[in-house]
Design the sequence.
């Protein structure tokens, strides 16, 4: 087994349950969550082994987030088709080149924002968003109060938003 495959196998063992819980919370459907979680790992496994990824769990989380977003778009298209709005629903289900590029840019920007967080804040952010730990579980692990965890997560979100907003502004784009 190659080093890349070993990394993915380890990631699967360590994060599958938390990732599936994250996706289930966003979709409200356990079966869809299982499918999207599996697809997330498959997409990660299809990447070239030499691709430089600084934070595999965060990258996996981003893949899953994008798949949830794509799934939600498909649900809306199907609902429109059922409601008699075929022009929107007939459009290609596959994302176009522009959408793929935008998605890749969003992933890279989110990864950079997470990496820019202070180490302790980033650790709490990943425990919550990637591992699916509760405030209490994180607090017990790190020896802090759940209120402190809540504060750090709020701070992380504000910092990530500010980071992304600044990067987009520097590119002349609107957030």
Sequence:
């Amino acid at each position: 087994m190659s080093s890349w495959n070993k990394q993915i196998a380890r990631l699967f063992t360590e994060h599958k349950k938390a990732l599936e819980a994250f996706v289930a919370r966003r979709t409200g459907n356990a079966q869809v969550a299982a499918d999207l979680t599996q697809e997330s790992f498959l997409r990660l496994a299809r990447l070239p082994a030499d691709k430089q990824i600084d934070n595999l769990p965060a990258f996996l989380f981003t893949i899953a987030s994008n798949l949830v977003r794509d799934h939600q778009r498909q649900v809306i298209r199907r609902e429109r088709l059922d409601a008699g709005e075929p022009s929107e629903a007939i459009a290609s289900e596959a994302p176009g080149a522009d959408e793929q590029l935008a998605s890749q840019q969003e992933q890279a920007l989110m990864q950079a924002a997470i990496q820019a967080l202070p180490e302790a804040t980033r650790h709490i952010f990943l425990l919550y968003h990637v591992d699916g730990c509760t405030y209490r579980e994180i607090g017990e692990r790190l020896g802090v109060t759940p209120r402190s965890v809540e504060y750090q997560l709020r701070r992380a979100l504000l910092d990530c938003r500010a980071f992304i907003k600044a990067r987009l502004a520097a590119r002349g784009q609107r957030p």
